[in-house]
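can u pls check wat happens w/ zinc ion
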Amino acid sequence: MISPKKNGSILNQSVLVLNTNYSPMDICTARRAICLFYNEKVDILESYSEHVHSPSVTLPLPSIVKLRDFVSHNKMDVILTRRNLMVRDDHQCQYCHTKKGPLTLDHVLPKNRGGGDAWDNLVTACRSCNHKKGDRTPEEAKMVLKRMPKKPNKIHYFQQFIHDKQGAWRPYLFMESF
Ligand SMILES: [Zn+2]
């Protein structure tokens, strides 16, 4: 089997998962994609330039995989997690625009005033802005949000995973024609 030790962090590379009709479904790690491949759940459409090695096999590191069986699309919501909120906010304090950590999550309407854990009430904030704002609304604290927080659209969310190595993803995420 593929040894995590030998292959290190490349197994954590992002892999785009497409439905049988090529619509984008999910993003998973290369580790998970390889597992799905060995279980004959997916075909590999595109690979990165790196390879993963096991004692017996060398496999190109998958970049895009396609499911073999159609999955209905009810689970298209982006799950509200700390990581996903930070991705939506580009790992940037939404008040002072710094990208220097440590970054925290701020409730726009403070929790003790009824503000909930929701896409439209949570933003990424640096520790000092979070502290400065305290139990106030942005208006009360005279702090301006970079943009109003909202639930990400899944396609837009996937697009944020595209860096130099994910050029092959672009056509599948409606960023250029085939
Ligand atoms: Zn800040």
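The beta strands are 14-18, 24-29, 42-53, 58-67, 103-107, 122-126.
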